[in-house]
Amino acid sequence: MMNLNDYLLLKVFKSAERRDQFNKGDVYLSSTSNFWKLENSFQQDKEGGIFEQEGKGFLLKTNPDFPKILAKSTSLDDVLKYLNEENAGEVIAETADCSLRFEGYLCCFYLLSKKAISFTSNTLSITSDQERKDITLFLNKYLEDAPNHDFYVSIYDAVTFCNIFFKSMSDRGYKITYGIVRYEDIDDAMKIERYQKGEGGSILFTKPTKFSYQKEFRIILTNPNEPMKDHITENGIDIEFSRFGSFDYANLRSQSIDGEVTTEG
Q: Which string of b and e fits 127-142 if b means at least 16 CB within 10 Å?
């Protein structure tokens, strides 16, 4: 079980304006569905997806004999034929461009261990060689798809941020889940199995291993009283009180000492 007291949260923004708005308490969060539409390699990872099927298909109700049918079938026609002949299940409906996924609004951070950093005046020093390599890889990956090849970062105390953010959002009717993202490669069959076992929610905290450099801490919001939207905006949240400091790509380019970053605030 993680102890938030041991961590800082690092959040990357595509512009100084978006970062300033967030720190002033004007929060813009995209839905999982919106991330499915993105084309950049840093963010587009089918957030919360269980399965996706393009074109014509079938929604099936099956019994334990169904894997045997799949094993001896060489086509969809075979599956439907054996399904009926051997009473291994039934077709519930025909589908087209069908997908099953969990919906929510995402607020994501890079998880930075307090043990790996030190503060002197307005300078943040990364004291761990491994942490320095990790955060460098993370920021370089972000730059690959960043608008204008730039980034803008703020650092928050994890406990203070979560206390402020959770209280404000729950007061507005949102349900909140949070945790560290696990990185593993699971196929559609494994996702469906987890869903059937009632463990589908864990999929929102699982990403492919190719994204493990992100070291992500994820907050997921849902609002049972409103239909899902492409994004949500909320304001008046005292996020600034949790901020340790901020820096941007220009800061790093001007630094001559590896592993040190001058922060503002």
A: eeeebbebbeebbeeb
CA–CA separation, 29 and 231 (whole Å): 6
How far apart are alpha carbons 204 and 193 in whole angstroms? 15
3-state secondary structure of 216: strand
Whole-number Å distance between alpha carbons of 172 and 4: 24
The secondary structure of 100-121, three-state, reads EECCCEEEEEEEEEHHHEEEEC
Query: Can you tell me the distance from the alpha carbon of 42 to that of 145, in angstroms, rounded to the nearest whole number?
Result: 7
Closest CA to 234 of 169, 185, 146, 140: 169
Calpha distance 2→93 (Å, rounded): 43
How many other CB atoms are there within 10 angstroms of residue 48's CB atom? 24
**With contact defined as beta carbons under 8 Å apart, do 23 and 243 qualify?**
yes
Integer distance in angstroms from the first to the last C-alpha of the chain? 31
List of residues 6+ apart from 67 with CB closer than 8 A: none
Q: Rounded to whole angstroms, how far apart are CA atoms 234 and 122?
A: 30
Count of Cβ atoms closer than 10 Å to residue 204 Cβ: 21
pLDDT tens across 51-100, in order?
A: 444 556 666 667 777 777 767 777 767 777 887 888 877 776 665 544 55
Q: Where are the alpha helices (DSSP H) in 151-248?
A: 158-171, 188-196
Q: Which of 86, 52, 55 is nearest to 72 (CA)?
A: 86
* Cβ pair 165, 177 in contact under 8 A: no
pLDDT tens digits, 96-114: 544 555 678 999 999 999 9
